[in-house]
Amino acid sequence: xxxxxxxxxxxxxxxxxxxxxxxxxxxxxxxxxxxxxxxxxxxxxxxxxxxxxxxxxxxxxxxxxxxxxxxxxxxxxxxxxxxxxxxxxxxxxxxxxxxxxxxxxxxxxxxxxxxxxxxxxxxxxxxxxxxxxxxxxxxxxxxxxxxxxxxxxxxxxxxxxxxxxxxxxxxxxxxxxxxxxxxxxxxxxxxxxxxxxxxxxxxxxxxxxxxxxxxxxxxxxxxxxxxxxxxxxxxxxxxxxxxxxxxxxxxxxxxxxxxxxxxxxxxxxxxxxxxxxxxxxxxxxxxxxxxxxxxxxxxxxxxxxxxxxxxxxxxxxxxxxxxxxxxxxxxxxxxxxxxxxxxxxxxxxxxxxxxxxxxxxxxxxxxxxxxxxxxxxxxxxxxxxxxxxxxxx
Length: 393
Ligand code: APR
Ligand code: PHB
What we know:
Blueprint: E1 5-8, H1 12-23, E2 28-31, H2 36-41, E3 47-48, H3 50-58, H4 63-68, E4 70-72, E5 74-79, E6 82-87, H5 88-92, E7 97-99, H6 102-115, E8 119-121, E9 125-130, E10 138-143, E11 146-151, E12 154-157, H7 165-168, E13 174-189, E14 199-201, E15 208-214, E16 217-224, H8 235-245, E17 259-273, E18 276-277, E19 280-282, E20 288-289, H9 297-318, H10 322-325, H11 327-349, H12 357-372, H13 374-384
Parallel strand pairs: 1-2, 1-12, 2-8, 5-14, 12-19
Antiparallel strand pairs: 3-7, 4-7, 5-6, 9-10, 10-11, 13-16, 13-17, 14-15, 15-16, 17-20, 18-19
Helix pairs in contact: 1-6, 1-9, 9-11, 12-13
This protein binds adenosine-5-diphosphoribose and P-hydroxybenzoic acid (PHB).
């Protein structure tokens, strides 16, 4: 087998990359080790920045997103039982975010790739990368039990945090990492969202978040221990904790419903530098992880592959490698700003187990500042809706 760009992983990074390359007339093959159904049923991120929405719409995969996505013009920060709205439209010159699940984004992208005759292979096994420091890298894998070799010009390492691409180049990487002393217990509930917009709540028992996937589906989170045993959390206990942490003195009520899915994830910030080695380029979760508090993971994956697709197009059209050589530097500029924002939102809203009374007073002052100062609120808003996409220089 032979293609121009071999892409490992059919998550948001891999599929958006394949889609953008196709629009530039560049051929790719996507190799994914899970089934299509598994990828599309996994409950993952759900908030799209304005720039992500624009990119999907402008490249022809935004039709259902425009129809079904829930456009939000702000979020609420809730503390001391009171809500404080951050008005994105007003603070950012009209920008918004859109609620549309990662699974829906993946369905739309997979449909578009397959309809255009794209090659996306699910359930391939034993994927490995070779010769990526030479001109003809190779990807080996098994498909329906048969060993295959894909020769390509470039490899897109879009295989997420637990993939094989980052380990393959680990010798040349520097890792920057921070683990948080808490985790995130999330549920998906068949209940209409109790609020039109997302609510981020700081409470003395810990952080809670009310989000959603549709007018019928709520997505809710509570701060937990990093290794919290989900079996200790029957649904009633989760709802009780959500009621406590989201409580309001303003007559608001939390609507309950059957819990369809629940799980605990650890929280970390993680970046590797550089995001490339020879002809292998890492993108998305393969190169960096953010804690979920700022809803940035999917958006960052999309902004990486946008840079990569532009650089590959420049190479194939002009024979010029400059943008490819600058790929990591261009991406990391945004990655670190998004890391900073995600760390800041997480630190402002979570209860640290070792927090002193001083730390807690300071945290309340920060929330008060962000919600009462226009400058403070604007800083949050411009990062939340998404910083402008980097233009390679
Ligand atoms: N071979 C083939 N595919 C693999 C391999 C492998 N060895 N290892 C992992 N994959 C696949 C995974 O099954 C997954 O479908 O790579 C894909 C990576 O997708 P994501 O983990 O979704 O990562 P990414 O595309 O970078 O998107 C980042 O995903 O983690 C969420 O919420 C996060 O929204 C963010 C987004
Ligand atoms: C989600 O809906 O899954 C979500 C929303 C906002 C966040 C994190 C997760 O900050």
